[in-house]
Amino acid sequence: MDPLPRPLRDPQPMLEQAIADWGGRDDLWLFGYGSLIWRPEFDFAERRPAGVHGWHRALKMWSRINRGSVQTPGLVFGLLSGGSCRGMVFRVPSAHGLDTLRRLWLREMPTGVYDPRWLKCTTPEGPVRALAFTLSRRSPNFTGELSDERYRHIFTHAVGRYGSSLDYARQTLLELRRHSIHDAALARLVALVAQERQEEQERQAAAGAAADCGMPPAPVYVPGSPDKSPSSSSLPQQSSGPSKEKP
């Protein structure tokens, strides 16, 4: 059984804390590891590839509105502790930082599901301190370990107001590749659907072959053979002479 949705947690204190930690004097940096990369929905002055240590991208967060429903929960990414993650950082000019944070909170934190953290990100131009939305393993929205079969089921059936979980995963994978970011774990999950479809096609082909094996072979007429053609043997014989009628 899926866990219940996380109890509503007031996001306003967390927003106020993020604003205080930022300070408002310097430009605002944001770390994107999922949909923020391909759908940031805010203006930025600069974007760089970036990496963080001690955290990794994982498709292990329940979504019951955006990419799924209460009946069929979908999945979105969370940033879990452990490992490392490559993504993108966005620089927002300080003059627009406050408005950007407020709008971002409406998108990412309507129920306070994430734990916002300021992380040290490495970039080609040097380290930056960026805000990232992390996920606690104690959160009811954390899925825990999922089997390949469960991922297949979710990818096949889970759809929310922004589309399917499969589209979300595929779009993220494509955008990561566009920025030369390789995520082997995500690529394997997306490939599960293609593998399932191939297996289904193979099962259908095998079932068709088995059905064909149970049918008698169709008769074949060879021209010049003394045997009559199957079609002619089934027709009534007609006389070539005039018909004779009884008086």
UniProtKB/TrEMBL annotation:
<dbReference type="InterPro" id="IPR006840">
    <property type="entry name" value="ChaC"/>
</dbReference>
<dbReference type="InterPro" id="IPR013024">
    <property type="entry name" value="GGCT-like"/>
</dbReference>
<protein>
    <recommendedName>
        <fullName>glutathione-specific gamma-glutamylcyclotransferase</fullName>
        <ecNumber>4.3.2.7</ecNumber>
    </recommendedName>
</protein>
<dbReference type="InterPro" id="IPR036568">
    <property type="entry name" value="GGCT-like_sf"/>
</dbReference>
<feature type="compositionally biased region" description="Low complexity">
    <location>
        <begin position="223"/>
        <end position="247"/>
    </location>
</feature>
<feature type="region of interest" description="Disordered">
    <location>
        <begin position="202"/>
        <end position="247"/>
    </location>
</feature>
<keyword id="KW-0456">Lyase</keyword>
<dbReference type="Pfam" id="PF04752">
    <property type="entry name" value="ChaC"/>
</dbReference>
